[in-house]
Prior knowledge:
By secondary structure, the chain is an alpha+beta fold. 62% of the residues lie in helices and 8% in strands. The chain has five domains: 1-60 and 71-88, no CATH class; 92-238, Phosphorylase Kinase, domain 1 (2-Layer Sandwich); 242-430, no CATH class; 433-457, no CATH class; 462-507. Strands 1, 2, 3, 4 and 6 form a five-stranded antiparallel β-sheet that branches. A four-stranded mixed β-sheet has the order 5-10-9-7, with helices on one face.
Amino acid sequence: MFLLRLLKIIRIVFAYGLDEFILGHERVRGLETLVRTVLFWRRFSDSRAVRLRLALEKLGPIFVKFGQVLSTRRDLLPADLADELAHLQDRVKPFPSQLSEQVIEAALGRPLAQLFKRFDSVPVASASVAQVHYAELPNGRRVAVKVLRPNILAVIEQDLALLKVIAWLVEKLFSDGKRLKPREVVAEFDRYLHDELDLQREAANASQLRRNFHGSDKLIVPEVFWDLTSRNVMVMEWMDGIPISRIEQMRAAGIDLKKLAVYGVEIFFTQVFRDGFFHADMHPGNIFVAPDNRYIALDFGIVGSLSDFDKRYLAINFLAFFQRDYKRVATAHIESGWVPKGTRAEELEAAIRTVCEPIFDKPLAEISLGQVLLRLFETSRRFQVEIQPQLALLQKTLLNIEGLGRELDPQLDLWATAQPFLQRWMNEQIGWRALLRQLKQEAPYWAETLPALPRAIANLADPQRQAKLVEATEHLLESQRQRNEWLATIAGLLAALLVVLALVLRGG
């Protein structure tokens, strides 16, 4: 099976002319003439980027998903490839409903008739990893039943093994291969895929996001039914809404598109800077709009997490960009440790100024935060900046949010919407508000510690206790010295034994 799959990949590579990515390299350039001679009939009207996208679609859902992940790594890919791969659609033929029912019954341990009052065998959605069915619980609650594709793990492992081989070849063949970190990119993809294969993990992500936005007037997250959820089946609340890509349908339903666009920006920055936990797969297929003008989030297989350090780094960069403080942007990168040692702040500052100044010649409403990030990542290639996976996920999510926002409201001023949020967050992190919050967090510890502090100080000042402390310390040091001597003796005996053994073997 592995060999047949490899042969199919090779056939598709040559059919779509992807060999030019490899044969252009100096180490194998001699083969280019041979391939052109043998495949003399090949003529391509499409660009290399389009051919790469078409080839990935032909190779199947795992390669499509890999292309989607790869499209987020604009710090690694040329712009034409990243732009084209972003258009990949994960449309997959559904698997038979009989298999779906078997998976559900095996996972939940009961017949389908006991689990649901109604179960629609025709799926409402189908993707590379799972498909979704409409159902109703015995109490009448409408639910969505997500079922993992049978035997999907074996298929994924097979394709991942091939991707790892390809990544190794890229790293060995190309001079820029190590900086591109192809094996790390495949490992990152491996992690995302295996996360998506555990629907309990996705259910936990959904529950966390629902808790974060409990009572929100901007975002709805469906409830998960944990007693009907396992690793390969997830049951959650059914959501009625309009897909966000259907602009005219939303207008006809009286949805306020301008308000919706602003909500999208606020939801994104709330997830990032308030919670440090964000939905990282916000493409149009995963977002609906409720009649009350709220977003509905779906599909929680991919989420991102940010540490306080990450959040601070991002906020400093966003604010510094729009204040044209390029020196602060440069020093933030150096302070983060994501720039190689020895990088001169002045050179990085000049490079950032070069790519960002043209942006500020436009009206503020035309400035794109997404484009700022893309330009920053392009500069990062030159300075070998280490782009962290969580920030690449964030960049992908920001581009999705910005694209959706501009579809809803072409005049959306993303920066004007985001700036107050960022400034408020920075004020809370630095200054007297941060001090008060820190004191409040530490109050229980100090309430427990402070009453005992005088006694602890008195004990330290007691001559008898000091003498006992000195005696205990000396005893500990003596014990350590004896242990070291014993270890040295054992090591000497072992060395002597090895010498004797070597002499015996030599004499034999």
